Amino acid sequence: xxxxxxxxxxxxxxxxxxxxxxxxxxxxxxxxxxxxxxxxxxxxxxxxxxxxxxxxxxxxxxxxxxxxxxxxxxxxxxxxxxxxxxxxxxxxxxxxxxxxxxxxxxxxxxxxxxxxxxxxxxxxxxxxxxxxxxxxxxxxxxxxxxxxxxxxxxxxxxxxxxxxxxxxxxxxxxxxxxxxxxxxxxxxxxxxxxxxxxxxxxxxxxxxxxxxxxxxxxxxxxxxxxxxxxxxxxxxxx
Length: 238
Known about the structure:
Layout: H1 7-18, H2 27-35, H3 38-64, H4 69-84, H5 93-103, H6 108-113, H7 118-132, H8 137-148, E1 155-156, E2 159-160, H9 161-169, H10 177-200, H11 204-232
Antiparallel strand pairs: 1-2
Helix pairs in contact: 1-10, 1-11, 3-4, 3-5, 3-7, 3-8, 3-11, 7-8, 7-11, 8-10, 8-11
């Protein structure tokens, strides 16, 4: 039987897995920045919006079944911010994403007509299965709070996603609030997710499962970009 990792060892394993496969290193971002491709950024945004629509539901499930009161309160604050934008003094986070789409010239009709690509749907459904099953609660936390919220902490050449978009596409800061708000808040949300996973994983198997959930989720994010890359980048004329 494998020995239980110490809290410090377990946290290190979770963070190392999070940082192994960074989506900002996907070739679609190089293509986007090289070509300044408005069509491509719209498709990336529309597929990203498919994820945003479900995020509050993930947090709601994690909140309702959280077994530790102190962590439950932190999830409540997370949920409240997602729904209201109260702590960031902005707006509902789905609305922030809709504002970003609008800044790209995407109409409400175009936004509502978009459907998740199979790769995007796979990521949505994987996380939903984990958060809805009490037996995989620890994996749901790892997938949502660590791997998913951790995506917003990624940088490329020491620049955050919203900084790159602002400079390369001449966008204003207000249009990019969805990204800047998450980059600030998710430092805390990722740590809260790690703390919760560390506290509830009482066996080495649970610890391994949580690390695997981070790995799988990061892989599914990368795979989502593969799907967009194949359909909306490789098949488009240069």
